Amino acid sequence: MLSMTGYGTGYRRGGDTSVAVEVRTVNHRFLDLHVRLPREYIFLEGDVQQVVRSVIRRGRVDVTITIQAPQAPEFTLNLPVARAYVESAGRLGKEFGISDPLDLRTLLALPGVVHAVESDAAPATAPGELVSEVVDCVREALKGVERMRVQEGSALRSDMFQHLESIREKAGRVRAASQSVVEEYRKRLESRLALLLGQGMVDQQRLAQEVAIMAEKSDISEEAARLESHVSQFRDLASGDEAGKQMDFLLQEMQREANTILSKSAGLEVARMGIALKADIERLREQAQNVE
After folding, report:
1. Domain shared by 85 and 169, yes or no
2. 8: pLDDT strictly greater than 50
3. Which residue of 99, 143, 278, 285 is 20 to 30 Å from 154, comparing CA positions?
4. Could you give phi then psi for residue 145, rounded to 5 degrees?
């Protein structure tokens, strides 16, 4: 069983290019994949998504990729600013009798003459070597994610089994308690009728009919049996893959049985255990939400 919580990193360096990948996963009802790439390398997104989808089937996945590669700098000249500098230098030379002209090196160093331009254009074609490095780096990060998801899943499975055992034990107690409820009801009803009508005046046939009606209305043996069956099915799912969605369905059924037990409960003890059942099922639901 796999948890949906994981974290992994990958790093590759080839020549002057380095690639770093960070993958984080948390629980989500479906696969919710987000890839963050530098704008100039957005063409790699399809390859990254394909690798991630081959490994992870459910959960929110955030993939952050950093690529550092040397780029030839581009410059642009601001000719109007340069011309203004030259003309101003000429006027100053005449005004003060300075014959040294404004040389090119000095001119290029003046503010506003030269601007560095960052190129945002992506390469026309995807460099095969870069694609391979990024994909390998993503796979390395996913291995770390998988290790953590397996560890988390193992701990999650152990906790879930404890709650399953608690639910199974309570379902058995509910079944046993419900059988004594009917007899207690018969005794209370007979005692009240005897107080109202007097000893020996109770119609035993009518009493038996009332007890039978009450027993039918409060019979929870089927609900308890189905609850125990759901526990067994849940255990089987906890040992398989991609069990999260099936667990969600089973938990809905278990919650329905617990609600029916509560609505039918004719005794305080049964009602108390029904509430405890719902609490265990809710804890199990919280844990199942993090199962892939």
Report:
1. no
2. yes
3. 278
4. -60, -45
Note whether 223 and 95 are same-domain residues.
no
Residue 1 falls inside a structural domain: no
State pLDDT tens for residues 186-243: 666 556 656 666 666 656 666 566 656 665 566 677 788 888 888 888 888 766 566 7
* 3-class SS letters over the chain: CCECCEEEEEEEEECCEEEEEEEEEECCCCEEEEEECCHHHHHHHHHHHHHHHHHCCCEEEEEEEEEECCCCCEEEECHHHHHHHHHHHHHHHHHHCCCCCCCHHHHHHCCCCEEEECCCCCCCCCCHHHHHHHHHHHHHHHHHHHHHHHHHHHHHHHHHHHHHHHHHHHHHHHHHHHHHHHHHHHHHHHHHHHHHHCCCCCCHHHHHHHHHHHHHHCCCHHHHHHHHHHHHHHHHHCCCCCCHHHHHHHHHHHHHHHHHHHHHCCCHHHHHHHHHHHHHHHHHHHHHCCEC
Co-location of 31 and 129 in the same domain? yes
Residues 205 and 239 in one domain: yes
Q: Is the domain of 32 the same as that of 136? A: yes
Structural domains in the chain (count): 3
Closest CA to 244 of 50, 23, 29: 29
Q: Let me know whether 171 and 233 are in one domain.
A: yes
Residues 239 and 176 in one domain: yes
Residues 180 and 260 in one domain: yes
- Domain of residue 107 covers 74-117
Q: What is the pLDDT of residues 147-173, one digit of tens each?
A: 999 999 888 888 889 889 988 888 888
| Tokens 């001119």, located at residue | 107
